[in-house]
Amino acid sequence: MSLLGYTGDLIIDRRDDNHLLLSEKTPISDECTFTLAPDISFIDPSDRQLIEKLIALGFYYRELDRFTSKSRNLSWIRSATAYSNAKPLGNVVSDVSKVEKPSVYRRALANGIVEVLSVYRSAVLHIEQLLLSETKPILATVTQGLNKFFSILPTLYELILKIERDDIRGGQLLNLLYKRCHCGVPELQTCMQRLLWHAHQVMYNQLASWMVYGILQDQHGEFFIRRQEDRDVENSSSNPDISDKLARMSTNDASLSDWHLGFHPYWDMLPEYIPMRVAESILFAGKAVRVLRNPSPSFQSGDAVYHQIPKSFQKIHGLAGRFHFQREPLINSGMGEDLLPQNEADKIEAMLLDLKESSEFHKRSFECAVDSIQAIAASHLWQLVVVRADLNGHLKALKDYFLLAKGDFFQCFLEESRQLMRLPPRQSTAEADLMVPFQLAALKTIGEEDKYFSKVSLRMPSYGITVRPSPLDVSRANPSADGSSSASSEMSLDGWDGLALEYSVDWPLHLFFTQEVLSKYLRVFQYLLRLKRTQMELEKLWASVMHQYHRDFAKRKKDRTKSPTTQQIPQRSRPMWRVREHMAFLIRNLQFYIQVDVIESQWNILQQHIQDSHDFTALVGFHQEYLSALISQTFLDIGSVSRILDSIMKLCLQFCWNLENQDNFSNTAELEHIAEEFNKKSNSLYTILRSSRLAGSQRAPFLRRFLLRLNLNSFFEATARGVLNVVRPRPTLPVLNQQ
């Protein structure tokens, strides 16, 4: 009886002296409390010592049995039901956790311990029957029959004692069992492997739920993948714009919110024998399955039908997006099954089932299975994003509008908005003011076949605009020869730098075009738009002055006037136009370098990767490399270079606006200052770009072409070395058309 945990008058429990009633809530004792009664004197000391050793097994059995009863107790379900009937659903989990902290992993461990205890009870029963049927030495027979349990039960007792003391659960419990499996006692090793097998059953069930159905079954926070808590989402959305976008995204489709913020690895519960890379693969596979099994209703009924309606209707709908056609819903479309076919789901489940039924855990087999499942999920996600959602078309649209590949559209837009951009932007109406030239440019250059233009919208943030008041009275500004209003060089040149584009991304492309990705596109767009605006102003300046000169020449020819001053105008204007030509030369070459050597070459590399790759994760990596190369090779990641380029563009605009301003024609000192600053900045730019640090980077091949174009006749190199920068009288910039 004592070997099965029951004490009496012969073998007593020392805790009975303290009148303690043992229950499930009674903590496990730190030491064995079973002992022979002290008033028994007829037992020899040697026998007493052996009996003390034997009855310790009974103590271990009782404590293990109490642990299993407590861990397998399902009364917490009734508690949760009672709380759910009395309180709102949101408070159920927190209230129950105050009462009880259940653990499915401990329950699985308890099931394994029950198996061991049943074998132990059978051994005790067999010994009892053997002693009743035959006359044998009692202590020797009992010791021999229970010999293997002298190493198993004490170890299990130490195990549950550590679990209770440190509150070990979930992945931490798996890690503890995995370590205990490495021992030199065969019986104990077999026992620990069996307990680990039981605990792994829970993990495999959670993996199957997550990787086959996209459902996270983890009521008690024991899995190494966890749903993001609400407070984490609030902290991560401190930016108002991002939080608004996430709010809209989660409202439109919860799966998109799940992909970006819904789930994350919980490293505290990750067993040490599962690498972090494998955990990331499991996280990705589950999120991919969630997306594939829960397609957006608009994608199901809208985009699927979209490819079935006549092409002429597609053109009308793609052009403006203003007309909504009554579409018939797909009947028995089975979109969820199409995105993840049932045979593929069965294949994933079969791989996990093979791992689950294996008696031993093999790390290599586990990692190979996870990699295979990730490959299946990534392949079907690639099919969804690249083929069904037309990823390449959207990439082309981003290239057209964010990387200014549609040069005719932006040329037209900048020409239409040129007069408006000469004035400081008004914070309240700047965006509305720009919509008119934006729409005019679209009508002139965007064809009906471009179904992606409706996803592009113009934005002018109302915050961060610093507008310096112009010293000129804009209402009294004199029109120049080409009809544009004059502006002051003191006008804020950064007011329109906040001009931005937004791209409407539909399901499931949010998985690919994250907010981080779109922000990188926007950064490059704003840089390229400033560059194109500068190039256009330099060209307009030359065209304006040449138009004025030819008009004056025709007038003089008609009047047959031959004044000496008239013949000197081209000669006296050469220093000024030489400066303009140097500016245009640098801006043109920089623009050609970015558009051709950088954007087009990187675009071709990305297209090759898209054709060769059928894996979503690899495709995301290639696209990140594409964006990183764009930012790197356009020098946006080097603060010193980007600041110099911004300064050069600002000087070019100041130069153009000063010359076009009739009131400043006589102010040659400021023009000389601009020319001098431009020379310094351009020389500094050339010196930095030729540095050894940049020569060894990924920018090197195309950067050398850019430098070759700039320094074709060694002008930049000689200037940078100071050959042309010696102290000399600055050329006087004459004034044209002084009449």
UniProtKB/TrEMBL annotation:
Major location (coarse): cytoplasm
The keyword Cytoplasm is annotated on this UniProt entry? yes
Query: Which InterPro entries would you find in this protein's record?
Result: GCP, GCP_C, GCP_C_sf, GCP_N
Q: Which residues form the signal peptide?
A: none
Q: Where in the cell is it found?
A: Cytoplasm, Cytoskeleton, Microtubule organizing center
Domain Gamma tubulin complex component C-terminal span(s) in chain numbering: 391-716
**Domain Gamma tubulin complex component protein N-terminal: start-end pairs:** 3-386
This protein's UniProt keywords: Cytoplasm, Cytoskeleton, Microtubule
Query: Record's superkingdom?
Result: Eukaryota
- One short Pfam name that applies is GCP_C_terminal
Q: What does this protein do?
A: Component of the gamma-tubulin ring complex (gTuRC) which mediates microtubule nucleation.
Q: PANTHER family per the record? A: GAMMA TUBULIN COMPLEX PROTEIN (PTHR19302), GAMMA-TUBULIN COMPLEX COMPONENT 4 (PTHR19302:SF27)
The UniProt entry's sequence similarity note says: Belongs to the TUBGCP family.
Task: Please state what the protein is called.
Answer: Gamma-tubulin complex component
Q: From which source organism is this entry?
A: Stylosanthes scabra
| Organism lineage string | Eukaryota, Viridiplantae, Streptophyta, Embryophyta, Tracheophyta
Query: Gene encoding it?
Result: GCP4_1
